[in-house]
Amino acid sequence: MNSSKLYNAFFAAGISLILACLMIGVKLDTDSTVLTVKGATTEQWMWILTGISVVFLSQLFSTQIDALFGAIPKPNIQKILPEERKMAALKPWLIAAVIVVMLIWPFMVSRGTVDLATLTLIYIMLGLGLNIVVGLAGLLDLGFVAFYAVGAYTYALLSQYFGMSFWACLPISAALAASFGFLLGFPVLRLRGDYLAIVTLGFGEIIRILLNNWTSLTGGPNGISGIAKPTLFGLEFNRKAKEEGASTFHEYFGMDYSSSYKVIFLYLVAVLLVICVIYLINRLMRMPIGRAWEALREDEIACRSLGLNRTIIKLSAFTIGASTAGFAGCFFAARQGFISPESFVFIESAIILAIVVLGGMGSQMGIIFAAIIMTILPELAREFSEYRMLLFGLLMVVMMRWRPQGLIPMKRPNLELKQQ
Amino acid sequence: MSQLLLDVNGLTMRFGGLVAVNGVNLKVKNRQIVSVIGPNGAGKTTVFNCLSGFYIPTEGSVMLKSEQIAGLKDYQISRKGLVRTFQHVRLFQKMTVIENMLVAQHRHLNTNLFSGLLKTPNYRRLEKDAMEHAAHWLKEVGLLEYANREAGNLAYGQQRRLEIARCMVTQPELLMLDEPAAGLNPNETKELDELIIKLRDEHEISILLIEHDMSLVMGISDHIYVIAQGTPLANGTAEQIKGNPDVIKAYLGEE
């Protein structure tokens, strides 16, 4: 044990002590009208001291601890999974099975669970959209939520002012979000890396502030409420039909009214949308345009020398990513029935980005898993809701330390060549 | 056969007050290997950057098949049949060898977004052609067995060859190689030498070469241009250049 270890341990313990004292050790409390500073209870101090000694010891014996963890054999995923060729044969069956399970499952669980699953599906859509921009094309976009907001408000406003239906608004939302992506992309895609990140961050805020302040159109901070839910070929899922002559789902099929039909229907719509998005993006990734996105991320100069027009390629990535977000936004507005600028703050962009990074840049499977984890974990950890962001940060640090390539790293397609 | 493919006149490139290239003239005929040599920092790569559109030359004309290309965008120039490699290998490292080859054929392959999404027969045929074309060139440079390897994991010499193959699938008429032999061992240099000659003789393209390896340059060049400090110093056949006192002075310094 050398002295630098000891120094490190003391340093880490000291930092923890300072942080813990500031965050847990002292508390501001209102005593009728005056604020008073209160010290922590003895029990809390015990916890703080235990925590600090754990930090101290773990730093001091870090080598030994690492060795201990190294000794635990890691599960070999390659061995567990069947061979590659068998996998390829199994794949369509596996996909079919997953879809069937996804369709049957909501009828067996509670309303809340289905609702949570719907939210997860929205994040999957958003993650897949951002994956095109960040994971494939390598353009760091910190304002992705702006396109999500555009999609949501497009549907909310069209439904409110013109009474348009969800299904008609879905393509319009996607198209409008795409054109916002195009308009933003055109001037800023010359910028690289950090600069692009800042500009997109600004764009995200502009959209939010605009929605907040354009009270006459968007209702400002009060948002828009009473947005119509999607219908099944014109059948509503309300207790009573809103319009004269229209019938509702339960009346049409002669069933008793149940509010869970609506939830399950929304879930099924989300499943449908996610399957569409996955299929489309999967095709795009294997098409020349998908390869061009990746090539541009790898080496822009080489792309230019090979006759690829980088502006068009970057714009297409930006636009298609944005349209996916518009899609998700439209559905989000329909599901919530109420939207306000509060739903489109920067932290949403950060969460979507976290999904992409945690899942593994460019990997669709990874992003689906990450989206599930990122939406379900906070729900499971409801009691810790105050520490949610803390857990979030911890998860990120741990992931980036041990698995920087993401949960399921992107696999390169194996292209069969005819031997000549 | 000896038609003029590339005709560069009075090419000048200034960066602020610095004159990097000053009045360079170059002529490349069909099926010719032309080399540009000169001491380090002479402006050879700047000439390449001007020709390939990475820089827009301050003055001078660049005619490709009697068509002015100076001032065009880089991707437009490469679509006209003038493609280059780089001094430091620039591959798409994380993509496989075959994907690298397919990206280069983007322009031939990228017809219609919807035909690709729907996998129409026309799209499938185009993709199959592109794969075959890529396989053909990989075989030509001896990389066919590595087709599904990540490009960044190839040995250095193989990466160099892949870069040339990647240029060739774009079906260029003039291939510009920027120090292709840098970092290669003598054996690999010899293979490169044979490859370049094969490209000229069998595939009937012209090659413009920047190189420091004098044995390679002198052995294969039909014509050699010497540049020193941005200005043309001499040009001629290998024999003429070897005996030119100015060239020797520029390389070895005054006595």
Report on the architecture of this protein.
The complex is a heterodimer of chains A (420) and B (255). By secondary structure, chain A is mainly alpha-helical. Chain A is 69% helix and 4% strand. Chain A has two domains: 3-71, no CATH class; 90-402, ABC transporter involved in vitamin B12 uptake, BtuC (Orthogonal Bundle). In chain A, the strands form two sheets. In chain A, strands 1-2 form a two-stranded antiparallel sheet. A two-stranded antiparallel ribbon of chain A has the order 3-4. Chain A is globular. The mean pLDDT of chain A is 83. Chain B has two domains: 1-81 and 172-255, Rossmann fold; 90-171, Rossmann fold (3-Layer(aba) Sandwich). Chain B is 40% helix and 24% strand. Chain B has helices at residues 44-51, 74-79, 97-104, 106-109, 113-118, 121-140, 156-168, 186-201, 214-220, 238-242, 245-252, and strands spanning 4-15, 18-29, 33-37, 59-64, 67-68, 82-84, 174-178, 206-210, 223-228, 231-236. A six-stranded mixed β-sheet of chain B has the order 6-7-8-3-9-10, with helices on both faces. In chain B, strands 2-1-4-5 form a four-stranded antiparallel β-sheet, covered by helices on one side. The longest helix of chain B is centred in the middle third of the chain and has 20 residues, at 121-140. Chain B is globular, with a radius of gyration of 19 Å. Chains A and B meet through helix 12, helix 13 and helix 14 of A and helix 2, helix 3, helix 4, helix 5 and helix 6 of B.
